[in-house]
Amino acid sequence: MSSQSQTQKIDTAHQDMVHDVAIDYYGRRLATASSDGTVRILSVGPTSQLLSTLAHHNGPVWRVSWAHPKFGTILASCGYDGKVIVWKEASPATNQWTQLHVFTHHTSSVNSISWAPHELGLSFASASSDGSISVSTARQDGTWETLRIDRAHPVGVTAVSWAPAVAPGAFSANFVYKIASGGFDSCVRTWEMVNGVWQSETGSISQLHKDWVRDVAWAPGLGVKSTVASCSQDGTVVVWTKGKEGEAWRGKIVKDFGIPVWRVSWALTGNMLSVSDGEGNVTLWKEGQDGNWDQVTKIEM
């Protein structure tokens, strides 16, 4: 992608600020989340079309996330009302959606959701201002099981991201259950399920952010180390790496943007990091042979 790449502007028809956009697995549809309390589904192509409006949140919707298509066409949304709604497309021909599950266990705003790798089943993690992280998993009988990490970030959890199902460099078929989280306490933490219980893997791994963490993203496991990116209200983007199990996480500041940074996201190859800042700029970064991160391009909006 070059700085001359063309961009397509899509009118979402939302009546208020758009907080999140997620493209589906096949790149054919967008889901958007807005302060107007709705989630909208739009087609992607030469011309965009509004397909559906999902309006069952009571307040701003912060995030949307598509599940892997092996489970069908499923979308999760979370919002200020403390709910996570799992939507399922009932009829593609008529663009009809139903509520597969409504999660209401959080007592405050749900700020982030992340689907687990498909190898682990239909499962999502949610992060809330009530300080907890919840992990909900669909059972075969149609019910859901929920496990909580209480006081994950006592002053509020802002972001959550699943690790790959296979540990870096592993040849075993045993899957790992790990997540990374960020909070209003300026910390990034990692968690691991051991014997059916979620516990802190390393405690606080962030000593670099000076303000609350806006987003975290665990990189695809294509190398020999675990990698997590985080961004903060303080304007910094940090990439955290860890080699073998038991080693400490090490953080490196990619850049201090001088303005709040809203989102970080990895390419599927795991070697390219996308950064979205508070002024609407999107930049792509790649690690050089010297270990420093270099800006590859800036996408003009």
From TrEMBL:
Q: What is this protein called?
A: Protein transport protein SEC13
Annotated Pfam families: WD40 (PF00400)
Choose one Gene Ontology CC annotation of this protein and give it: nuclear pore outer ring
Keywords associated with the record: Protein transport, Repeat, Transport, WD repeat
**GO molecular function terms attached to this record:** structural molecule activity
Family according to the record: Belongs to the WD repeat SEC13 family.
The record's listing under InterPro entries reads: Sec13/Seh1_fam, WD40/YVTN_repeat-like_dom_sf, WD40_repeat_dom_sf, WD40_rpt
Q: Which GO terms describe its biological process?
A: COPII-coated vesicle budding; protein import into nucleus
Q: Where are the transmembrane segments?
A: none
Keyword hit for Cell wall biogenesis/degradation? no
Coiled-coil stretches: none
From the UniProt record, list the WD repeat ranges: 11-52, 54-88, 206-240
